[in-house]
Amino acid sequence: MQSGAVAEEGTRLAKTLSWPHLIALGVGAIVGTGIYTLTGVGADRAGPAVIVAFAIAGAVCACAALAYAEVATLMPTAGGAYTYTYIAIGERLAWIVGWSLILEYSLACSTVAVGWSAYLVGWLQSAGIELPAALLNGPHAGGIVNLPAVLVALVIAGMLIMGTRESATFNILLVVIKLTALACFVALALPAFNGENLQPFMPYGFTSHVEGGEVRGVMAAAAIVFFAFYGFDAVATSAEEAKNPGRDLKIGIIGSMAVCTLIYMLVAISAVASVNHTELAASAEPLAYVLRTLNHPFAAWAIGLAALIALPSVILVMMYGQSRIFFVMARDGLLPRRLSAVSSRTGTPVLITAVTGVFVAAAAGLFRLDEIAELANAGTLLAFVTTAASMMVLRRTAPELPRVFRCPAPMLIGTLAILGCAYLFFSLPALTIQRFLLWNAIGFAIYLALQAFRQNRVAAASDAGG
């Protein structure tokens, strides 16, 4: 095993995280923009059956989580799906996975930063404070830069540079705020349950199809609300920093998935059963809309405040995951090796974290992300497929390796994860799939160019030595 399995001195990450930190990292990544906004988008695509869409997406993620738990405890090194693919299948596919994970972590991170900026601007406007429009929008909207989105991304990057444990501990506080807000939503909305709002339950059918110019169906909704579930894989990228990876990783990955699936089911049924799904679909802030409709204005205000306070935890975890992917790719030599240097004081990869922060801040500040946000789902689905495949391959090629956590019925669970992710992938809009393939074609061309450069350097060194 090469990728991250043996780290040179000076490129090892400090072991500072225990299982409460890892569960909080997982919940911090999973519970965020998705549940606060995608309930309405899912209702638009599936009607009241958005509840089923959440269940399907959760089931697919649960199978992937079991595969992640086995390979993460088998290979407790940073890098997540990239590292597993590198070891089990090979460098070329690992590069594609690492390249695709840029879509998952960076685009999701930038999208949340832009969403946080919108919440902040709304709050300032409600207080009578108006900021220059040129500093609140990128060039696509006639502005210069979305400054709040840039600033929040850079601040989070600074926190990660200060130290992983400090960032993870702060993240626990943000997770508590988010879960408290969602618990209050369920407590206020569920008593208003009205069975008539669930009829017809599946107005657009089950399979993904185009209806009225829009993609509809339960599976189309599942392909979108899948965004609300992923993030638990960020826990796997922290494997090298876990104090007791054999115990802590399986608790962190499976525990965060179980907690979030339960939360999402309760929130979804509370929302679609208390107001008509067409009204829910028309709102950009569906949870706050439900509470205002039920005459709970203060609770709606508090939900918005909780989102404003707690959404940075999603940025923190996603940026953390992206920086660790880049870190391991650099340590493997697929990116410049100097990017894998670790601070002797904090035990964190300072340079690569700073590069990641600048990249995310630039995307959040300058680009329109709404049309490409689904690319994040495509990248994540590929990572889940290759992780499940890696688990199955290693069961065949290296059955003697000690496994702290063994996935039950690995061939069945792995196959279900692959088939489920593939079905969700092909339920995405055709344009999203085309953009994903183009992104990876560009990435593979870069890989071939880097390979040629490396080979030329080795040849030159050999000639000089001869």
From TrEMBL:
Pfam families linked to this entry: AA_permease_2
Q: What is its main location?
A: membrane
Please tell me whether the keyword Transmembrane helix is annotated for this protein: yes
User: Where exactly are the transmembrane stretches of this chain?
Assistant: 19-38, 50-69, 144-163, 170-193, 213-232, 253-278, 298-321, 347-369, 375-395, 407-426, 432-450
Q: Where in the cell is it found?
A: Membrane
Q: Look up and give the membrane topology term.
A: Multi-pass membrane protein
Keyword presence, Cell cycle: no
What is the native source organism of this protein?
Answer: Steroidobacter gossypii
Give the keywords, sorted: Membrane, Transmembrane, Transmembrane helix, Transport
What InterPro entries does the record tag this protein with? AA/rel_permease1
Q: Supply the name of the protein.
A: Amino acid permease
